[in-house]
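Box 3.1 — From sequence to structure: alanine dehydrogenase
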Amino acid sequence: MSSGIYSGFSDIAKQAMMQPQESLLEVKSKKNKLYIGIPKEVSFQENRVPLTPLSVALLVNNGHDVMLESHAGQAANFSDKDYSEQGAQIVYDTKKVYEADIIIKIAPPTPHEIEMMKPGQILISTLQMATLKAESIHALMVKKITALSFEHLRDEGNILTVVRAMSEIVGATSILIAAEYLSNVFEGKGLMLGGITGVPPTEIVILGAGTVGEYAARTAISLGAEVKVFDPSIYKLRRLQNNIGNRVFTSVVQPIVLEKAITTCDVAIGALRAEDGRSPCIISEETVSRMKRDSVIIDVSIDQGGCFETSEVTNHTHPVFRKHDVIHYCVPNIASRVARTATYALTNIFAPILLDIGDMGGIKNLIWQKSGVRNAVYIYQGQLTNKHIGERFSIPCKDLDLLIVSHR
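Predicted structure (token representation):
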């Protein structure tokens, strides 16, 4: 083949390679510059922060401004210096942070925080339906805020992406907490979680075969414990069994079988969730009173009321109490116990969304193109779009799709 043909091929190749770059340059010129504010969390024992310093660097390198309230990342062991080195602007006045176009935080905004928000802002935070008040919704609507609840964000596989990430963390961490409270250090029974040669393993009962239950079972099995998982749904049990293998005992909720398992186990983990409202309370006080002395209950579902009749909300400062000689751990926010890991999990979800808002020329285009993000919107430019909130507080609700079309 002659050299002329070769050079002809190379010219065509060069042209082909140049085209995407030119089209990329065109897209970049349409980008919106974002002004992102990260306030310090004021909610009790909330140690997580939505973005890590490296995610801030990614946003800054893409031409966006990030403003962080001083010490916002301290509880997750990220210093102001870590953020400022990556291009974040550190501010000491909370009101200054609320001048940003986009506010991203973990806990829902308090009435005082909503007061500081400016009209037309974008808010990304949790919604926490259990503690939601009508006044907060009305205050956000008056300010024409566009609000997204990240517990309703869905990924490409239609999975609740933040809920899934936090559930994985909570499931694995609950077993590590159980291991601590079984040991002598915390006045437990003095057991090692997994068995060793000649010593039988500890028995763990997990109520619920969702993500929390699955990751609790994985961690317990890997530490050598004997695991039994109960759930009313045979579909969920089958999925868990397929994901983990035959080393786990599964059963639908049959009172006699469940009662026997609870009264003979060393650790019981409550991870049954309700779609809306209260989690099913399936273990009576009478059953708890017959559990082995110094056994451990970890009620992960306590934020929805709990699976055990004896459960009462505790916190990270005073995490346990004893009832019927059983150690109860009922902290609602277990992910804050490993705040740095939780922050890494969250930043992997939020940073791409923020970049998309910039790349697509605004939140409206992102909502229009990505159904997973659209699912998380509960107020759009001051109009309530979540029918559950509307029904609960008797607030008129609008169809989000129609609102976006009318604003396009």
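Summary of the box: The chain has a mean pLDDT of 87.
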